[in-house]
Design goal:
Oligomer: single chain
Structural class: mainly alpha
Distance between the termini: 57 Å
Number of helices: 7
Shape: globular
Length: 165
């Protein structure tokens, strides 16, 4: 049996099934690490009970699916923190039927929320007019115009924190 170069497990070709598999494993591992650190102070997200593992698995499914649907962005550290409050609201619904659909209900809300801020998760756009640095700059200008005292406090504490590094 002859194995083509593209089907070889060590192939670096983007179209290689093995490359895609290893890329998926790497993303899943990053998501798993991040989910372990997601709000450890909250009962829903921490611990190793079957209940908590089920919720982490649901969040993992949402994040993995998003990474597959938007390969340009994929998964970026911090998306778990964006998903957590959305998932929490749906999974703690007092109506058990609604709570049982928390994964399915959380996904479109997560996608919609990220669609408005997806440029902030794309490192190539960080320094562009739509990137995170530009957005933070506009936010700082708005804050300075509307609450200069708070702006000054944040400017001072940010610079002090950087000096400590």
């Amino acid at each position: 049996m002859k194995i083509s170069h593209e089907d070889h497990p060590l192939s670096l070709g983007k179209a290689s099934v093995w490359h895609q598999y290893f890329e998926h494993i790497e993303i899943a591992d990053q998501i798993d690490r991040d989910l372990q650190r997601t709000h450890p102070e909250m009962k829903l997200f921490s611990g190793e009970s079957l209940f908590r593992r089920k919720h982490r698995e649901s969040m993992r499914n949402i994040l993995l699916l998003f990474s597959k649907l938007d390969p340009a962005i994929c998964y970026v550290q911090g998306m778990n923190e964006v998903l957590a409050p959305i998932y929490y609201v749906f999974s703690t619904d007092t109506d058990e039927q609604n709570a049982s659909n928390s994964e399915a209900d959380s996904f479109p809300c997560f996608v919609r929320l990220l669609s408005d801020s997806v440029d902030h998760f794309c490192q190539q756009l960080d320094n562009s007019s739509v990137g995170i640095f530009s957005t933070l700059s506009r936010l700082a200008e708005l804050l300075k115009a509307n609450d200069e005292e708070l702006w000054q406090h944040l400017e001072f504490t940010s610079k002090a924190s950087l000096m400590e590094l």
